[in-house]
Task: structure prediction
Amino acid sequence: MNAPLWVAVPVVVVAILAARADVRARRIPNALTGPAIVLALLAHFWFEGFAGLRGSLAGMLIGAGLLLPGFIFRFTGAGDVKLMAAVGAWFAFPDALMATLLAFIAGGLVAIVVAARRKILRHTLLNTAWLAAWVMRPGAVAATPPPGSGVRFPFALAVLAGSIAGLWIRV
Result:
């Protein structure tokens, strides 16, 4: 990634504030994500013109779009989707895709640690394999999804880790 400082600082600040709120209250406030999205769009337009605005909108849609299925099937919360939309808007396309994928990887690692600590790692891995098989079969979206593993954690921590990793990888 090649994020300038005017992108990196807001991404880290928004992700830290969201992670703090998510850990404390298991909620990511709209008062954080809404303005973060608007400011990202305005900043990209200000610094890069219409091309920057388009890239920021694309990043927002990528971040939100990739988390939306998890929200639909109740694996993530709406705040997680809006936070990833905000982070994606700041990163813009194509960096938003990398940041989102890194957040997924971080989320998977956190889920493994949480499941191991709760002594349900085997059960979680089996349910994850079942879910992956369900998603790959034709007509899966119309059918009822298999049960989740029950492993819950503040996903904003994964977004924070993915964002920082995305900024670090560019060096």
